[in-house]
Design a protein that fits this description.
9 helices, five-stranded antiparallel beta sheet, alpha+beta
Length: 264
């Protein structure tokens, strides 16, 4: 029987430390940690929020979060959307092909093949026979190859619309306490305002205004939970002049009043 540690550095080409499939049911799943190995968190359904340098980024179904060894992992899977996390911790010299930014979001292009191999990997990892190691190695190699291929396709065309949309989302996160200038956002994508609204919703799953609201609520949750801000201070920091409106919006998104959320 092959035994695995939850964290270890593999001296050979490739090895798996742990993997699994995690449905997010009753409450959001929030993790803040560091690991010594590579970590992959794949959003099979629903959505997640990943924090990179304290900036929240939406991670949609069909996208993966990749963390290199030693990187800070800070992410939330949302229970309200019945999210499912398919995850792998692994190590080895072959993983160097994935080196780059310590924490990043990857849109998976060959999604069906990718998910199929994640499922097979999880099943193989649960085995207790001598074939376990060989099967895990094979499926993990395919997964790494598909990650590398997806990143290459993302980077092959730096002027693609996705890159422009990414710039817009960065702009939105940098101006969460201000009203979005949609004309400026459209100019960043080199398209008309009407076309921009359509393209943004196609790529991000919501309008630019809804995207900003979602980001504001995620930051509000962090402020209320971690900073000790009052509800009024939190609303002001995020650009809400009407505290009552902020409270109604917060409850609509989370199911809690801000004052209730502070006590959770």
């Amino acid at each position: 029987m092959v035994k695995f540690s939850s964290q270890r550095i593999i001296s050979g080409e490739l090895g798996i430390n742990a993997c699994g499939i995690q449905p997010i049911m009753d409450r959001d799943y929030h993790t803040v940690r560091e690991r010594i190995d590579y970590s992959l968190m794949y959003v099979a359904s629903g959505s997640a929020t990943m924090y990179i340098n304290s900036v929240p980024y939406e991670v949609k179904s069909g996208e993966a979060m990749l963390f290199l060894p030693g990187a800070k992992q800070d992410y939330i899977f949302h229970s309200s959307e019945k999210s499912v996390n398919k995850w792998v911790h692994f190590s080895g010299t072959l993983c160097k092909i994935l080196d780059g930014e310590d924490s990043r979001i990857i849109k998976i292009f060959s999604r069906h093949e990718f998910e199929s191999n994640l499922d097979r990997l999880a099943h193989a990892f649960s085995r207790i026979d001598n074939e376990k190691l060989l099967l895990c190695d094979g499926y993990l190699r395919v997964i790494i190859a598909l990650i590398s291929e997806s990143e290459k396709r993302q980077h092959d065309n730096p002027n693609a619309i996705q890159t422009r949309i990414d710039r817009v989302t960065e702009y939105i996160h940098a101006h969460l306490n201000q009203k979005i200038d949609l004309n400026h956002c459209a100019e960043m994508c080199f398209i008309s305002r009407n076309r921009f609204n359509h393209i943004f919703k196609e790529y991000m799953g919501c309008s630019p205004l809804a995207y900003q609201r979602n980001a504001q609520i995620e930051w509000a949750k962090r402020y209320l939970r971690d900073s000790g801000m009052s509800v009024g201070e939190c609303a002001e920091a995020l650009g809400f002049s009407d505290v009552n409106y902020f409270c109604r919006l917060f409850k609509k998104h989370t199911g809690y009043k801000p004052s209730e959320y502070k006590k959770l």
